[in-house]
Design brief:
Layout (H helix, E strand, L loop, with lengths): L1 H28 L8 H31 L2 H25 L2
Helix pairs in contact: 1-2, 2-3
């Protein structure tokens, strides 16, 4: 039972670690904002990159899940992913403006 739960949680954990690494790398390696909007630029950068990481990490987990799952389980996973991905993409679009 514990092994089955671990196998189910593993794709999400890997995707989360990859996403967190992408956020940390891109924010620390990018150009530093200057001028009077430094705080706003940093916050919107963090929001945009974090939302993109959630979307991409979830997409990776979804792909790994759908390969090994039945059609019914894949539909369920896609429905759950859509509930997270749609707000994440909206946040990416709004924070990039």
């Amino acid at each position: 039972m514990a092994v089955a739960r671990f196998r189910q949680a593993l794709p999400a954990c890997v995707a989360g670690l990859v996403g967190r690494g992408a956020v940390a790398t891109s924010l620390d390696a990018g150009d530093e904002p200057t001028g009077s909007w430094v705080v706003r630029a940093r916050v919107t950068d963090e929001l945009q990159v974090s939302a993109a990481a959630v979307w991409f990490g979830g997409l990776c987990a979804l792909a790994l899940t759908c390969v090994a799952a039945s059609v019914q389980d894949s539909r369920f996973a896609l429905t759950r992913y859509t509930m997270v991905a749609a707000p994440a993409i909206a946040l990416v679009a709004l924070s990039g403006v």
